[in-house]
Amino acid sequence: MPHSDVATDLSLVSLFLNAHFIVKLVMLGLAGASVWSWAIIINKSIMLRAMKARMDEFEDTFWSGQSLDELYRSLANKTTDGFAALFMAAMGEWRRAFEGSGRGFASLQTRIDKVLDVSISREVERLESKLLVLATIASVGPYIGLFGTVFGIMTTFRSIAASKNTSLAVVAPGIAEALFATAIALVAAIPANILYNKFVKDVSRTQGRLESFADEFSAILSRQIDERAGQAGPRNVA
Amino acid sequence: MAIDLRGTVKRFLDWRQPGGALSVGAHTLLLVASVYAFNSAQPFQPATEALAVDVVSEKDFNEMMKGDKTSKIIAKEPERRVDRVAEIKDDKDPGVEKKDVPVAPSKQEAKSEPEPKLAAIVPPTRPPELRVTPPTPSPPVKAEEDDEIDEKAELLRRKKIEDQKKAEDAAKAAAEAKRKLDEKLKADAQAKAAEDKKKLDDALKAEAEAEKRAEDKRKADEKKAREDKAKKEQAAKEAAEEKARNDRIRNVLNQSKEPAASTGATGAAVASRSTAGTATATGTKLSPSQLGQLGEILKEQMERCLSVPSGINPKTKPIALIYFNRDGTLSGAPILQNSSAEPAFRVLAEAGIRALRQCQPYKVPDRFMSAFEQWKVTTIFISRPDN
Q1: Residue A6 lies in a domain
Q2: CA contacts within 13 A on the Cβ side of B49
Q3: ipTM strictly over 0.85?
Q4: Which residues of A touch B22 (CB under 8 A)?
Q5: What is the architecture of the domain spanning B288-381?
Q6: Which of A2, A8, A35 lies at the smallest CB-CB distance from B23?
Q7: pLDDT: is B308 or B199 the higher one?
Q8: Average pLDDT, chain B
Q9: A77 lies in a domain?
Q10: Which domain holds residue A107?
């Protein structure tokens, strides 16, 4: 395949170097956005996968009939997330109610519910973090690339007007440069958009699981509270 | 968003969140790969020129130039090889074998040679005979003489080669002076072959005849009997010779292995080459508008010679069929194609045909000459120039 001199000038590097300053900025920004979005995608997918695994594991442990106090003690010195975080928050509140003078049974259920809600929202916030970046890149990236393209075509037409030569050989390199910006934008935006949708769905499913676990755990604790209140109440009264 | 550089770097290098490092690495790899892959744009393959195809429509094919299929010469005006100019204007195609068969010319030569000699020989021999014969009762001799002339011509033709021998025979005949008539004929033949000896022969012959006539007077009956005998012998001999000659010709014809050959292409003018085309094509055709143009050109020329009284304006316009030569002259009389009972029609038609004759040669523009075959027979409406 013969390579002409014109053809060798059309490598990606020379395309980038020949572009206008603003187009260069757009290209660099979009390349950075692509790097960032992929970093987020990788981290997020690792995180979601790990969280799902830990939650499954915790669920098995939780329903294995093990004593909740033992479970609490085994998890006490670890960083927790998901069900474990919820469990630790609720158990912490529960234990705090009994460590003291044993007062405050009446509103313990309410406090546990609040704590669980806060934990859920914290976990969800952690899961959803940086997803907004992906959404932004997915939605705005093509516009930025289009801006670079339009700007590149503008400059190309200005040079055509200046050189008074309309042959395709004159027009083509400028157009190729300009379209390069859109290409980068699409490379960044398409995976960002696809994976954003996937992550949003994963996060909402996880949130649903957290909420149902919170309700179940809240119900268990509520039963415990009522039993303790039934035992302690007459003694206190007496 | 406050940028915490150190925190960012720390998070970036966190092994639990390898996304940043992985992404940067993957993008670098992708960039390197794409720089390598898009190192150079592949130029378009130069579009191969489409095969140049000349579409030959049926019309074009029919109007193909007259010429030779194998010829490589392409000329604007179609030409055809013509070996000799035809006396009758009949364009003959080049035949199978491109050579002249020697038959026709040789026949002409053979005919042309003896005729003048006969004319030259007969006058000196006959007058004395005519003058002498009336008193002598010898009508058969005269008849014999007539026969002799024909026989002489035939003999001459077939026995040219034996001229030398005949000359000797003639000398003998002169010396003996009493030989038979067929020997005298041989003497005559010798005289014809050798022009310079003609006079001598004539003299000898005259002498021989004089002697013979003298002898005839003396031996009329005797000679008559002898002559009858000689005549019979000669007839027999000639019949034999005729048969032999026919056999020879038959043999020649039977043994001839030469393929059929034409007498050569004929045409209006001798041409050494043929242009590309087909032998049966009729040359270029004129479009209807060109034909109309030509018709108007011819009509306009005709009208210049047309003189008819102003009142003559028949409803039916006379139509004349005209035969043209290449030079614009008429090759035949114009023929009136229609008729009408109107008196004016007859007047106009006659005037028109007169005008058509007077106006030749017609000036035909050169561009129509290649299509001569198409307009050599043309019909023309005769009408006055003003209507």
Answers
A1: no
A2: 3
A3: no
A4: 38-39, 42
A5: 2-Layer Sandwich (3.30)
A6: A35
A7: B308
A8: 74
A9: yes
A10: 19-231
